[in-house]
Design a protein that fits this description.
Number of strands: 11
Distance between the termini: 68 Å
Number of helices: 2
CATH architecture: Sandwich
Radius of gyration: 23 Å
CATH class: Mainly Beta
Order of helices and strands: HEEEEEEEEEEEH
Length: 159
Amino acid sequence: MKILLKRSVIILIAAALFGCGNATEVGNPTGDIPTLQTIEGVIDTSNIQTKSVSNESLDPTILTVVATASGSTTRESAVDVDGSFSIQIEAGISYAFDVRMLYDVVGPFSFEQDDAGNRSDRLEVIEAGDPIDLGLVRYVNGEFIPENEPRRQMGNGQN
């Protein structure tokens, strides 16, 4: 009986050890490469001026951050009362970002594209990873400019 019990324990331990060999990381047991990238930030509403709303009366919850891919695929994130947003885009696809109030475009985002200072409303994440934190996104001359540039967080891997 003791021999049978020892063999059973050995078999269970061996099975557990061999079974654990396939897990690639905690929280991702399949080993799949993530395809969605989280972009987050806080919209500074203190100087947004539109035809219908002054900054004193602007409720951030009527704003939406929209990312539009070339094939008309859109991703959206409502802006919270504190101005924060979090949007997920698919890696490997270029998106144009803007902020909308209800259905009207307030202005495009302006992302640094290269070390020469060129800017664009387009952002492409080559490979998904940790969330990209834009920090405070300010409205300047009709564009939304992030405090933290995405390409610097991605190791200049942006197109």
